[in-house]
Design a protein that fits this description.
It is built from three helices and seven strands, in the order βαβαββαβββ. The termini are close together. The longest helix is centred in the N-terminal third of the chain and has 14 residues, at about 10-20. It has helices at about 10-20, 40-50, 85-90; strands spanning about 1-5, 30, 65, 75-80, 100-105, 120-130, 135-140.
Length: about 140
């Protein structure tokens, strides 16, 4: 597992942008971290790495935002409001687990108990160290 320290939101976005430049169709990036940890900042950078030029924002109330216009389609999911396996399954989450682009799932820890097969999954954990610093850990679950 690789670990980096982000010293500010721009660092977190830059890491996301590096992921975006390396991303391949079919990837699912499972993001975990407390509220305010920087998950959406990471996704903003990821979109920039794809060449997406529109404003990226958290889909907390809509469940999923889809962004095109870049080299890959980006599906940005936020599972914060879904708590039970039944809610997750009825929301159609499985549709995004083998995307025709890249799916980024905020609050991904909520689906780990659903027994999905992890192909091309990348796990990114963002931990708050201080007001401005974050510990960002990365692991490839599909390896």
């Amino acid at each position: 597992m690789a670990t980096l320290i982000s010293h500010n939101p721009a660092d977190t976005e830059a890491l996301g942008e590096r992921f975006g430049r390396a991303a391949q169709a079919g990837w699912v990036i499972a993001l975990s971290g407390d509220l305010g940890a920087g998950k959406t900042q990471f996704v903003k950078g990821l979109a920039r790495g794809f060449g997406v030029s529109v404003r990226v924002h958290s889909p907390t109330f809509t469940l999923v935002n889809e962004y095109g216009g870049g080299r890959l389609k980006l599906f940005h999911l936020d599972l914060y409001r879904l708590e039970t396996p039944a809610q997750l399954l009825s929301a159609g989450i499985q549709e995004f687990l083998e995307p025709d682009g890249v799916a980024v799932i905020e609050w991904a820890e909520r689906i780990y108990d659903l027994q999905f097969t992890f192909h091309d999954w990348k796990k990114v954990q963002i931990e708050i160290i201080s007001e401005s610093e974050r510990k960002i850990s990365y692991d490839d679950l599909g390896a």
